[in-house]
Amino acid sequence: MAKIKVQGSDITVLALAERDYISLTDMAGAKDGDSRAADIIKNWMRNRYTIEFLGTWEMIHNPGFKVVEFDHFRKQAGLPSFVLSASEWIESTNAIGIVVRKGRYGGTYAYKDIAFEFGTAISVPFKLYLIEEFQRLKEQEQARLGWSAKRELSKINYRIHTDAIKHNLVPSEVTPQQANRIYASEADVLNVALFGMTAAEWREAHPDLKGNIRDYAGINELICLSNMESLNAVFINEGLPQRERLIKLNQIAIRQMQILEDTHTGLFGRTLIK
């Protein structure tokens, strides 16, 4: 569930069956208040053009749509005696473009195409602002998805990295404590190469912050760290000593961050290791 603000009114957006549905109830309430919302939706659905629009949308997107029942409503639409509620439309035609929900976040919702069309019944400016704010919401979701994907990539590369350590640096029959010390040492190789400090040094410098140094990294740092983890796994497999790997990784971090920070400024300074 998300909310967008259109001309000062909060409009609810629900994700149902991998589709975005926008609250017609909220939209109608923005016009004449919540008490009149249901009447505004009913009046909109009495219109012949509305019924034809809804029916055409369903025929394109809904294989289970009942065309015969739709044709009955289409013939009746526009007559003075014709009244149609959202619930009746859904039950009679097996429609999926409009849904009615009860309880929390209850109300009448419509797939975005239909909601945008309903926006015309509110006002043309309202419709245009609705489209703009909905697109902004989708852009924000994509940005968050991109961040999540980078975090997942970093986790995957970390597993590759630790697997290489297990097979190449950890002696047989070591205790878990010994293995942990080796893993921590390799993690600090990356920390020093990229951030210029170990995890312990960062905690000492930031006692008021929770988490670890990587939790406070920016997108550029995460991208660089992901690349470095993969490269360190290769260097380990090649048998390079830790100091040599540290110098190589630091040089790579400097080059990559210089490229990445042409557009974004990172959180940490870089110092080439001699």
Automatic annotation (TrEMBL):
**Residue ranges of every copy of the KilA-N domain listed in the record:** 2-137
Please list the coiled coil stretches.
Answer: none
| UniProt cross-references to InterPro entries, sorted A to Z | KilA/APSES_HTH (IPR018004), KilA_N (IPR017880)
What this protein is called in its record is: KilA-N domain-containing protein
- State the organism's lineage: Bacteria, Pseudomonadati, Bacteroidota, Bacteroidia, Bacteroidales
Q: Which organism is it from?
A: Candidatus Phocaeicola excrementipullorum
Q: Which PROSITE patterns match?
A: KILA_N
